[in-house]
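User: Fold this; tokens only.

Assistant: Input:
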Amino acid sequence: MIPGSTNEEVLFSCHVCHPSLCNDNLSGITVMTHLAQTLKEMDLRYSYRFLFIPATIGSITWLALNKEKTDTIKHGLVAANLGDEGNITYKRSRHGNAEIDRVVSIVLHDSGNSYTVKDFFPYGYDERQFCSPGFNLPVGSIMRTPHGEYPEYHTSADNLEFVKAEKLEDSYRKLYAVVDLLENNRTYKNTNPYCEPQLGKRGLYKHIGGGDAKVDQLALLWILNMSDGAHSILDIAERSGIRFLQLKSAADLLLQYNLLTEV
């Protein structure tokens, strides 16, 4: 457990039941360990729980022993098969449109890489235990090539030659991006909501356009228009098609000029 400023939790789970298999098990263990080490050095809003458990029986046992803790789990991912050369595959939670489902989709879209998103189905890894109807936790599953869809799966060919360092790094970076988006998905209210504010007299135009400018004018206008206290940056990213990081930069700038307040 890595504590944040609130007791609301993000759950990460990986498998330790086949320690001789490099993609199925060790890749998840490796990436989760590095992610946990990174988060320990950060100032976090959420608390992060990492489970290193045998598949199926591990999640069933943990849930049986910790039922009272599950109310604080707001987002979750089961991670496995993170080192092969396939593109990222994401399997949605039972909810189908939970915040974690939307966040992962935005991260994959914004990455510019090819990816696959699948709807939930009650077979696979531990997501099916976390998503059982009694718990119904918002937990999805992230992997590269899904289990059973590569010939090396559960054989001695799943070895150090099969996993690729650059794919482990890519998986780590995408999971870190998920954390970054969860941490920064805030909701704001426009302090000047009656028509668009004059950007020039506030000096905002110097931050827009070419040169060293980091903020797109359209991102500013989307944030100003949709920040009514009911729409998060994630909502605005989905509606506008603008990358989340561009919208966050716009929101940060508008906060500096007192045109937004956080809800």
